[in-house]
Amino acid sequence: MAKTIQADICVIGGGSGGLSVAAGASQMGAKVVLLEKGKMGGDCLNYGCVPSKALIAAGHAADTVRHAGKFGVNGHEPEVDFLGVRDHVRGVIAAIAPHDSVERFEELGVTVIEAAGSFTGPGEMIAGDTRIKAKRFVIATGSSAAVPPIPGLDHVPFLTNETVFDLAERPEHLIVIGGGPIGAELAQAQRRLGARVSLLEMFTVLGKDDPDVTAFARKRLVEDGIEIHEGIAIKEIAQDGNGIAVSIEVDGKPQRIVGSHLLVAAGRRANVNGLNLEAAGVTYSAKGIEVDARLRTTNKKIFAIGDVAGGYQFTHMAGYHAGIVIRNVLFKLPAKVDYKAVPWVTFTDPEIAHVGLTEAQAREQFGDKVRALKWSFEENDRAQAERATEGLVKVVVGARGKILGASIAGLHAGELLQPWVLAISQGMKIGAMANLIAPYPTLGEVNKRAAGSYYTPSLFSERTRKIVRFLQRF
Ligand SMILES: Cc1cc2nc3c(=O)[nH]c(=O)nc-3n(C[C@H](O)[C@H](O)[C@H](O)COP(=O)(O)OP(=O)(O)OC[C@H]3O[C@@H](n4cnc5c(N)ncnc54)[C@H](O)[C@@H]3O)c2cc1C
Ligand SMILES: NC(=O)c1ccc[n+]([C@@H]2O[C@H](COP(=O)([O-])OP(=O)(O)OC[C@H]3O[C@@H](n4cnc5c(N)ncnc54)[C@H](O)[C@@H]3O)[C@@H](O)[C@H]2O)c1
């Protein structure tokens, strides 16, 4: 017979979103139950951001050795110990894991149940042998790799983000399906660690970002030796001896690529299976759980946050959602999401970072009032010293210099983006960035210079010259 617990909030899923709600709500005095069916920390810690960034760091180390010659330092082809790389990735996860552990959450006063939750009605669910009745539920069950319906894919072994970080040896030839952030980041890391890599993308690599900036990442992926096949259709996948054969069509012509390993990174699907959402009156579609601007589902006592809510699928958005839910549930405030300053970074080398509107989106909304300001990393002294001159800041401004969006390609683009996130969230104008004193020599000067270029046409015009000449008479 199941025992019953009463709670103020029951959180389903101990990943980026669920842990933030549970920790916050419990420390603010609510009685919280947290259900986790897998590993605490969710995708980000165990199968996502953390292992991917650790693998990228290993790839970067290999690349630094390989190309050290440009600094006059003995550069050579590095020897990569793949087991050592795997240990490094596991070590990084282990260093962060205590922060997300059952022990820490129980110390914070959260009741953690390590079992899958399933609704049995609009206000209760069952997890293992426990029935939970709660005033509010927060569904934070995340997403998993979507497996495209390609003939033959279900008959061959393939890797996803849940298994790729367990590889104990270098893949001889890794075929990656999907050129989004997961595909591009992992393709480059694996290539730099010595694998041959083929990247297959039905549209364009990193197609969600501004092509002016993604061009820099794409160029480097090619220079690294990744074989990119864009605009292709995958017709069939089959076992070929010990390898895997992928038949593709490029401009109507068939081609066959045989690799040793296959990684599927073709988008995500929301984790709703087994939740029995029908019993709770929660509506969902293939995109995820339907939510309103307060992140309430069709059952107003049940919220959905993070990847399962189907919008921006980033750890920082799951964290942002958690804050909105806490304000709604604990403080009874009608807090709503505001997506005007959502940043994201793809951790290829060079990094690609974006916030706000792209130039195309801004022109669609504001027509020819929009100006795009660009500044190249080549003009930055620090980038020259670091030999990292391949990069660009592109800022989109509207009427009276209002900052609408920014995209950056280049070394540390993710760090360089942050002032633009603040500027857009605070509704600032371009003059604010143009007038700040940027320390020399920093990469951050590119932001000031891009902003300053807004004034170039009027500052160096014939009209200004006439005014200056006139004023010099006195
Ligand atoms: C390879 C990769 C790299 C990424 N890199 C980045 C990055 O650099 N930056 C970034 O911002 N984002 C990145 N992401 C995205 C990021 O991982 C997700 O956006 C984030 O983890 C979403 O958090 P969440 O809380 O919604 O879900 P998750 O963190 O996935 O947590 C969901 C949890 O719910 C549990 N669960 C599911 N169903 C149930 C159930 N019925 N009962 C109990 N528990 C359940 C799962 O076991 C899981 O632990 C990356 C993703 C991948 C795959
Ligand atoms: N740095 C980061 O912040 C980061 C890193 C990794 C993942 N993520 C998050 O995870 C999400 C999922 O990443 P993702 O890369 O899997 O998804 P995605 O949807 O961004 O990209 C998937 C790509 O696969 C392609 N594709 C789909 N089916 C295909 C097929 N049959 N053949 C060839 N190509 C196909 C799509 O055209 C698309 O370009 C991202 O959108 C992002 O929200 C973030």
What can be said about the biggest beta sheet?
Answer: 7 strands, mixed
Helical percentage: 25-40%
Strand percentage lies at 25-35%
Each distinct ligand: flavin-adenine dinucleotide, nicotinamide-adenine-dinucleotide
The third-level CATH topology of the largest domain is: FAD/NAD(P)-binding domain
Count, helices: 17
Quantity of strands, as a count: 23
Descriptive notes:
Keywords: Disulfide bond, FAD, Flavoprotein, NAD, NADP, Nucleotide-binding, Oxidoreductase, Redox-active center. Its cofactor is FAD. Belongs to the class-I pyridine nucleotide-disulfide oxidoreductase family. FAD binds at residues 53, 117, 141-143, 307. NAD(+) binds at residues 178-185, 201, 267. With 474 residues, the chain is α/β, with parallel strands linked by helices. The chain folds into three domains: 3-144 and 269-329, 3-Layer(bba) Sandwich (FAD/NAD(P)-binding domain), CATH 3.50.50.60; 153-267, FAD/NAD(P)-binding domain; 350-459, FAD/NAD-linked reductase, C-terminal dimerisation domain (Enolase-like, domain 1, 2-Layer Sandwich), CATH 3.30.390.30. It is 32% helix and 26% strand. It has 17 helices and 23 strands. The chain has helices at 16-27, 42-46, 49-66, 82-96, 102-107, 181-192, 211-223, 277-280, 315-329, 359-366, 381-385, 413-416, 418-425, 430-434, 445-452, 456-459, 462-471, and strands at 3-12, 32-35, 111-113, 117-121, 124-127, 130-139, 143-145, 173-177, 196-201, 227-230, 232-240, 243-250, 253-259, 261-264, 268-270, 284-285, 288-289, 302-304, 343-346, 351-356, 371-376, 392-397, 403-410. Strands 1, 2, 3, 4, 5, 6 and 18 form a seven-stranded mixed sheet that branches. β12 (243-250) and β13 form a beta hairpin. α3 (49-66) packs across α4 (82-96) and α3 runs parallel beside α6. The longest helix has 18 residues, at 49-66. The protein is globular. The N and C termini lie far apart (95 Å). The protein binds flavin-adenine dinucleotide and nicotinamide-adenine-dinucleotide (NAD). Nicotinamide-adenine-dinucleotide binds next to α6, β9 and β19. Residues 12-18, 35-38, 42-44, 47-49, 52, 116-117, 140-142, 161, 182, 271, 274-275, 306-308, 313-316, 318, 347 line the site of flavin-adenine dinucleotide.
